Amino acid sequence: MTNKGLKWLEGVAVVAGLSYTLLITYGYVWCWIAAILSSLLFLYICFIKRIYAESLLQAFYIFTSIYGWMHWNDSGGGISGNLSWSIHGMIILSGTALVIITGALLKKMTDAATPYIDSFTTVFSIFATLLMINLIPDNWWYWIVIDAVSVYLYYKRKLYFATALFVLYTLLAVNGLLEWTA
Q1: For labelling alongside 10, which of 4, 54, 89, 127 has CA 20 to 30 A away?
Q2: Using an 8 Å Cβ cutoff, are 54 and 118 in contact?
Q3: Ramachandran assignment for 28, one of left (phi > 0), alpha (psi -120 to 50 degrees), beta (any other)
Q4: What is the pLDDT of residues 109-136, one digit of tens each?
Q5: Whole-angstrom Cα distance, residue 53 to residue 61?
Q6: First-to-last C-alpha distance (Å) of the chain
Q7: In terms of DSSP H, where are the helices of the chain?
Q8: Are 92 and 23 in contact (CB under 8 A)?
Q9: What is the spatial distance between Cα 147 and Cα 29, in angstroms, rounded to a whole number?
Q10: Rounded distance, CA 109 to CA 105, Å?
């Protein structure tokens, strides 16, 4: 694919991703359609740019978006309660261990551009997504950190539309936290 074609796909993925995040912030179930489109496009883009763990994360997002759509329809979109500090501790400790393991594997077995950062955003995005689809407001704290780190990841790979997207995602995650905890 030409660089121009990749930039066009990146632009469409960004618009779909922004649509998803804006819609989920306010609890609209249709957010999941935008999530599926954005994830399909970013899966392809990340693979082309050798961000392999992120590519796998996009595949995960496709499946969780389908589950999220079904779950939100069944639950009526009611926000759940927050998690205990001990649960957050387990998430952070297990996530860190997985980052170390997957980062080492990516470094050894692939030509990944930034294996540990790629692993960090991927591993913790899985946890945050599971919290989000189950309507747990704490997910937004994770997304604020993940999105801020993703700004660096995409900038380093010269994906400037995606970089801008993650700057906006970071701001939208702050808004999501405020909306879901108000």
Answers
A1: 127
A2: yes
A3: beta
A4: 988 888 999 899 989 999 999 998 888 8
A5: 12
A6: 45
A7: 3-25, 31-48, 52-75, 85-109, 115-133, 139-156, 160-181
A8: no
A9: 22
A10: 6
Residue 88 DSSP label: H
CB 180 within 8 A of CB 79: yes
Counting Cβ atoms within 10 Å, is residue 3 exposed (0-12), middle (13-18) or buried (19+)?
A: exposed
Closest C-alpha among 65, 67, 63, 78 to residue 21: 65
pLDDT (tens digit per residue) in 133-165: 888 899 999 999 999 999 998 898 888 888 988
Question: Which contiguous run of DSSP H or E holds residue 171?
Answer: helix 160-181
The token pair at 167 is 């700057």
- Residue 134's nearest CA partner among 64, 85, 42, 87 is 64
Structure-block tokens of residue 1:
């694919």
